[in-house]
Amino acid sequence: MTITIYHNPRCSKSRKTLEILRENGAEPVIVEYLKNPPTAASIVHLSRLLGVSVAELLRQHETEFRDAKDLPPLDDDSALAAWVEDHPKVLQRPIVVNEETRQAVIGRPPENALQLLQR
Question: What is the pTM of this model?
Answer without folding.
Answer: 0.94
